[in-house]
Every structure is written in C-alpha cells, then in structure tokens.
Amino acid sequence: MLKYQFDWSVVTSGKYFEWLLSGLYTTIQLSVVSVILSFILGLIIAIMRMSNFKPVQWFAHGYLEFFRNTPLLVQIFFWYFGSYKILPTAINDWLNRTNFEFGAAVIALTIYTSAFIAEDIRSGVRSIPKEQLEAARSSGFSYIRSMQYIILPQAVRITIPPLINQFLNLMKNSSLAMTIGVAELTYQARQVESYTFKGFEAFTAATLVYVVLSIVITLMVTYYDKRVLSLMKAR
Amino acid sequence: MQTGFDFTVIWINITYFFIGRFPHGPLGGIALTLYLAIIACVLSFIGGLFLGLMSISQNKLVRYLSIAILNIIRGMPLLMVIFWMYFLLPAMMGKTISESWTVIVALTLFTSAYMSQIVKAGVEGIPKGQTEAALSTGLHPWQAMIYIVLPQGLRNMIPSFVNQFVSMIKDTSLAFIVGVSELTQVATQINNRTIIYPTEIFLFIAVIYFFICFAFTSLSRWLEKRLAWRR
Predict the structure, then answer these.
(1) What is the share, in percent, of chain B residues with pLDDT greater than 70?
(2) Among all residues of chain B, which has the CA nearest to that of A188?
(3) So where are chain B's domains?
(4) A2 — contact with chain B (CB < 8 Å)?
(5) If you average pLDDT over residues B164-175, what whole number do you get?
C-alpha cells in the first residue's frame, strides 16, 4: 500500500466539516420531504389497488410494477432531463425558479418510494381480519369511510416498522441525487475528496454518519416491534 | 408543455443501446448491464452463503464479526460502497483495475449482505429436528449443514434470490458513476450527443429495464407458487 498520511482534522473542523454538515442537512431534508410525500402517494395508490373498480385497480397495479422494476437512477434522470415534455409549463417554470435539482430528486424519490410503501400498506391492510370491513360496511360506513376510520388506523400501526425501513432505504437512495448535482452528503464527501485528496477521511466520515443513522433507526424499529406491536397482539 | 415525441433517435442508436460498440470496441449497453448483473450475482451468492452461515455460527467471535460487517454494509448507500472500492481497490492491489471490476466488487459486497439474510432465513426455516437427526447419525456439524440443511433451505430461497437478481439489475445502473458504459451510461452519452430528446431516451431505457426486471419478478412469483405447491 502507498504511504498515506492520515489527517482527520480535515473532516472534524473548518470549511470541509461545514461542507459535510450542510450535506447531511440536505440529505435529511431530501429524505424527510420525500418520505412524507411518498407516504401520502403510497396510501392513495394502495387504496386504489384495493378498490373494486377494475380500471382504477389496473392503473395502480401498473404503477406499482413499473416504478418498482425500474432503476431509481433512470427515474431521476428522466425527471431531471426529460420532465419538460411531461409536466405542465407552470410547474416547470416554478421548478426552474426555485431549485430544479432538488425538485427533480424529490419527484423521483417520492414516486419510487411510494410504490414500495403502497405494497407495505397493502400487506398491512391484508393482515386486518376481513370481518372488520364487513362489520363496518354493515353498520353503514361507506367503503372509503370504513377504510378511513376502521381499517387504515390499525393497518398503519402494523405498517410502521416496514415504513421506517423504507425511510432508511430512502435516506440511502437519496445519495443518488448527487448525480444531478444535489449537494447532499455523498456529494459533499466526494467534493471534500477532490479538494483535499483526503478521500479516506472524507468517505469514512460520510460512511459513519450513514451507518450510525441507520443503526439508530433500526434499533427504534426493534424497540417499536417489541413494545407497541406486542401490546397490540396482547389486547 | 412541449408536446410531440420523436422516437427516431432511439431507432438510429438501437444497436448502441443493446451492445454498445461491441464488434469494433468494448461491450456496452444492455449486454454489459446483464453481464455485470450475472457475474456480480453469482459472486454475491457465494459471499452471501459465507456471510449467512457465519452469522448463525456457534462461534461468538465469528458471529459478532459477521453481524458487524452486515450492519456496516447495510447502513451504507451503494453509491458509497462504489466510491470506497473505486479508491481503495487500486491502493490495496497496488495497480489499477478496470471500472467494470470495481463495480462488480462493490455490487458483490453490497448484495452479499442482503443475500446473507436470505440464507439465514432459509436455514432457520428448516426444522431443528433435521440437524439433530443428522448429528445423531454421526455427521459432523459442517456435513449436516452442507448435505442435509442447505439443500433443503436453498430450494426455498430460490424466489428470494431471483428478487435479489432483479435488484442487482437495477443497481448496475449506478456503474454509470464511474463511467462503465452500461445501459444508463450509454443513454446519457446519447442524450449528451443529441441533446433534445432526453424524454424519449430515458423513457425508452426505463421501459427496457422494466421488461427485463418484470420478467424476472414474474419468474420469482411463479417459482414461489410452484415451490409452495410441491411442499
């Protein structure tokens, strides 16, 4: 191995530390915005997928299959480079005025993740006994209302651990946003490397942040599984 | 909204999309995507088998070591693993290695961690009585694992392996970042050259990826049903 002088001060203080910090901030911002939007979208798609109206069901099915079986990177490129022919001019103008890279990344991540979240929600709903829906319908709730008040509140509680895992995946996937120039954590680590040639330190710092975040979140899921879900089963 | 798609750009470059500059230059496009995915998948099957067996080992040191490796790899984005390999491998080997192999090593490391979970679940799904019976007939624990438990476990794991292969095909698109000319890279090249057809180009490769991945996803579902029925 070549002789290599370690210099950890590069990533623990000063300008480059601030770069990494701002990268982390962007990563979290990107993940949180996308996860909220993709939860909403995923919920809608899941409900559509379970609807009895065939065309709606087919649409949701096609949506799920298409976006789950296409690489996220291609989707990001599609929205970043190709959205001008798809989106209405007003939205494009707005995106161009604000932050187009960030916006395209949010759109791609949201759509990609919503397909996975929809499947998680659907399997959560499936685990609720059918009699509950029947009971709700026979006491006069409409399909939408019985979903809203009876089925979904329970299903979402069961779905929380897989949802948190999706958030984790989303956080890791958000690193792909660097390919279109969103200055998130991986981008900044790369940037520090090219400015200082201290790649080992920069990548170690970024890796540590990712690994620590993911371990903390995994521990939270384990705790939730043990406490909340076992309580629900006991009832 | 600017309407009007023009897909002739796809037709003009169709061989480039499929095989790159192959007969006169290196392989690229869809062929290279599949090549990367298949090699990395075979390697990570072996890696996953080792890591998975390590993580259910009786030896505490081996078990904790494998769990530490697993958690670190699974906590990292694949892009990060590729960057690590990109600059660690030449330093460790003392010579440059090709971008394709950098990506194959990174994909193998990354996917091994996920494969190992499948192996672990598959082995743990085999009733304990099988191991006990094997041990009481005088087999060594390793022999019991290799001849009795794994062959049964592996059969149940097949659908999950196929799903991992689908993820692998999607993940090869990240080879773009170090300049391997697989499908995504080829598409960005054509996009850079033609400039005004990004929507058509990226829609086209999305559909290509979709057909390949969907075929394997369907295969995995079919296998799952069939294997469940035979049991």
Answers:
(1) 97
(2) B80
(3) 8-230
(4) yes
(5) 95
